[in-house]
Amino acid sequence: MSVTAPAPARTDAASPVRPPRPSTARVALMVAEREIVTQVRTKSFIISTSILLGAVLLSILLGTLLGGRDTTTKVAVVGDAASVVQEVDGLEAVEADDVEAARRLVRDGEVTAAVVPDDAVLGYRLVALDEAPEGVVAALSVAPEVELLEPSGQSEGLRYLVAFGFGLVFLMSASGFGATIAQSTVQEKQSRIVEILLAAVPSRALLAGKILGNSALAFAQTAAIAAMAVLGIVLTGQDEVLTALGSPLVWFVGFFLIGFVLLAAMYAASAALVSRVEDVGSVLMPATMLTMIPYFGVIFFNDNTTVLTALSYVPFSAPVAMPMRLFLGEALWWEPLVALVLLVAACAVVIAIGAKIYERSLLRTGPRVKLGEVLREAS
Amino acid sequence: MLRIEGVDRSFGDRKVLDDVTFSVERGRLTGFVGGNGAGKTTTMRIILGVLAADAGTVTLDGRPLTAADRVDFGYMPEERGLYPKMKVAEQIAYLGRLHGMERGAAMDRARDLLDRLGLTERADEPLENLSLGNQQRAQIAAALIHDPQVLVLDEPFSGLDPLAVDVVVGVLAEHAARGVPVLFSSHQLDVVERLCDDLVIIAGGRIAAAGGREELREAYGTTRFELTTAGDVGWVRELPGVDVVEFDGGYALFEADEATAQTVLAEAMRRAPVRAFTPVRPTLGEIFREVVADAVPEEAR
């Protein structure tokens, strides 16, 4: 036998002092730490997060600039017609010497329209290039007072934008980090490090750590997006939007956290069924669908109170739909609490089932493990 | 002592382990040898509790193994598993921490092990940047990080160059010398022959032979002798009860029973100075072939 290393004196045990075995919770924290550190160090994560945050801020700033809140329409005025424009908001009078000069200004595109004296009923008429200048017509028209019996909390455009925003953030975060969890689960299976890990720690600790780490990342990213949105709104001086959005935003972050844990458990359990990264796509189908539902549901039905109410209680869509209803002022104070309790309950059930699937599938390699097969072992 | 007793395991209708029984003594390197699909990996996974046995027990010093005991095992799975994108020292320290080591202590030991295995310069690179042989060394470090009480290594030498094999054997022998039962599988019979103390041969899911290396060689030794003298040994062929296998001037390889062999020796000494006279022990490869041929029925091969 060829032995190159010196053999120390023999003792009964390899080492007299064994470190105490870490608790499941501590192991879960270590696993979570690894998930976070690994993820945060990747270039793709740093770049995508920066782009995401930049895009949120930029879209709010640009949206305000292009939305033209303070822009005015230039209108050429001739003689007495100036008085017509003077008291109208959004119209800026440009003095022209005579009708011809005003027409020239219109032709040159210097002004949108010209108000020139006329003998007709109003005492003036509008001159425009190739179509009636509706903005100016409207500004100069007298509109009747409108009384709304059920005024909507928010304008149509803002309503759509907020639905889109909540939905998009949830979709991107959930599917992004869901995919990360799935990848990390399958990679551990494929590289077989899972055999070494499971020889040391319980599978529950592994699953808990994975969910914990990725949820923390997703939560941090979402919170950063929310902070960025608030910053953008403050910078553009739209304080009234912030007042309307503030509390729904807080609810959104809360709902998001639990909703994400729910999806994370599903992603991890689904991914544990396959052994190769290439097979992840198909096995994640159900989880992906459940991530998409809130996004499309809320966007399509953002003006349908009945559907939105239903969606705000369904655990998968509640994280998007309930904050949306809060924003619209349609939800009573207790409604988010009930939805939250439902979500937490669903989350507990899914985690319990997910942990079983995860535990039973993790060491099974080869073809995709049948879901029914795994669950039947339970009985 | 790690003892595997009466372990059965089937996958579907296929019985892959049938009444597998053997021991891994403390302080000894035990080689686990068998052909492809003989059941080595399945046995090891059952020892580690990664797979359940249909029947039978695995005990350590007479006590049935618990999950808590197994945490202190060092395991190197057949299909190597570490995180490809994680730095080598970092992930080995991470595994140490999962075993309850403090962060600093785990990192110190990881670096120490990597030094001993010759990976000092690659310690801070992602695993995937290392050559296969070096990844293998990292894998061995991963199995040793928590100062295991029992070592179970599936093919630890595959893909290693002879120098690396020596380094790894040195590290394993050190653990064995401290009283850790070490079981490793291999199909490189020459390596196993050179370094293991005990041997377990598995064929077709059954233990075909088990015991000390020398005992086995003796037990499976044929009655062959080698004789070398200063003169010509052609006369050996004339003797009754002697069957010469090879002959070349002063050298003869012959088969005979022990008593006849002694008379051959006496005769040889009378005729010319004897340079060498030895019973020929079979190599592990020969024993393996013989044992496996006996153990696996014709139709199964």
Can you give a write-up of this model?
The complex is a heterodimer of chains A (379) and B (301). Chain A is mostly helical and 379 residues long. Helix content of chain A is 65%, strand content 6%. In chain A, strands 2-1-3-4 form a four-stranded mixed sheet. Chain A is elongated, with a radius of gyration of 31 Å. Chain B has 301 residues and is of the alpha/beta class. Classes of the chains: A mainly alpha (379), B alpha/beta (301).
List keywords for this structure.
heterodimer, A: 379 residues, mainly alpha, four-stranded mixed sheet, disordered N terminus, B: 301 residues, six-stranded mixed sheet, four-stranded antiparallel sheet, 10 helices, elongated
What's a concise summary of this model?
The complex is a heterodimer of chains A (379) and B (301). With 379 residues, chain A is mostly helical. In chain A, 65% of the residues lie in helices and 6% in strands.
Order of helices and strands of chain B: EEEHEEHEHHHEHEHEEHEEEHEH
Strand order, main sheet of chain A: write it out. 2-1-3-4
Structural class of chain A: mainly alpha
Total number of strands of chain A: 4
Strands across the major sheet of chain B, in which order?
6-7-8-3-9-10
Oligomer: heterodimer
Contiguous uncertain segments of 5+ residues of chain B: none
Approximately how much helix is present in the residues of chain B?
25-40%
Sheet bearing the most strands of chain B, described? 6 strands, mixed
Poorly predicted tracts of residues of chain A: 1-16
Helical stretch count of chain B?
10
